[in-house]
Amino acid sequence: MFLLYFTAPGQVSVREDVIPGLNPGQVLVQTLLSAISPGTEMLIYRGHFPQGLALDENISALAGEFHYPLKYGYAVVGKVIEVAAESDASWLNHLVFAFHPHESHFVAAPEELIPIPDGISTEDAVFLPNMETAVNFVMDGKPLIGERVAVLGQGIVGLLTTSLLAQFPLEALVTLDHFPLRRKTSLELGAHYSLDPAEASTRAQLQGLLPNGADLVFELSGSPDALDEAIALAGFGGRVVIGSWYGEKRASLDLGGRFHRNRLHLVSSQVSTLAPELSGRWTKVRRFSVAWESLRKVRPSRFITQRFPISQAAQAYQLIDHNPDQVIQVVLVYE
In terms of domains, do 93 and 142 share one? Predict the structure, then answer.
């Protein structure tokens, strides 16, 4: 079997190991493809993660802390190829999704696997975590009919969030991203306007498109500096949903002017939990059902821009790091 390790800033290695045996109640999954997260994974790749923080306390496959060397990744699609004694034999040959690092084979308990519903391809299913995240952002933002909404950042999570927001009867849906490929895709998904934040004319355009400011702003760029721009875009009493994880990156914020007088609401949104006000009616299972249905509608496999065999993982990460303008979603494939 092959396993991907982050070994130092800017370095990954693919190591070979024996396929582990099964204990009673476990199954063996052969990975078909896994998606590289251009957000969290690239923070790890660049060494921008906070030392000593738990990888993810809610996912057993991601036990431990952030430090090199480490295995990471959370979007794997595979096929159950072996079932141990005392396991449900019906799992055999099932296509499944798992929150698991990049590995060609892995052992799991059935409750750690999510069966892929009929009618959803493996390449669409690998987007499940990002779609669930987008669903969570929209639930936390609570868009209303006729609102003016801005989304900063049109990486894959930003694009999926845009695809959901485009289904609402909004007065204006404006997105911002530096890269033409992402802006073009954003418009195809239903954004009314998609602008380059670096263009000199953008600020004037935004003032015309969002008179009195945006009702709702999503900061999904991964850049702390963009949070200041999100605050500046929001109108009186507006909401700013902060979905980016900045790792160790820091930036000063201007909280002395518009933020203070405009009574803005900053909302921290993270997919590992449900908003407290929803938890009485919503569960993660219910949210997953919404994410699966959204995958059926959006068919995000069309956003896969590159496919690399696991043996060429280093080239995949280098591409994302050095040529982000060419990338929307990169996946690793396993032969």
Answer: no
Specify whether the CB–CB gap between 6 and 316 falls below 8 A: no
What gap in Å lies between CA 139 and CA 218, rounded to an integer?
Answer: 12
Q: Token pair for residue 212? A: 């009195």
pLDDT in tens, 83-130: 998 778 899 999 999 999 999 999 999 999 999 999 999 999 999 999
Report d(CA 78, CA 104) in Å as an integer.
Answer: 9
In terms of domains, do 56 and 163 share one? no
For residue 86, the model assigns a pLDDT of: 78
**Residues 242 and 135 occupy one common structural domain:** yes
Residues constituting the chain: 335
CB 29 within 8 A of CB 109: no
| Residue 54 belongs to domain spanning | 2-116+300-333
- The domain total for the chain is 2
Looking at the structure, tell me whether residues 108 and 136 fall in a common domain: no
The pLDDT tens digits of the residues spanning 163-201 come to: 999 999 999 999 999 999 999 999 999 999 999 999 999
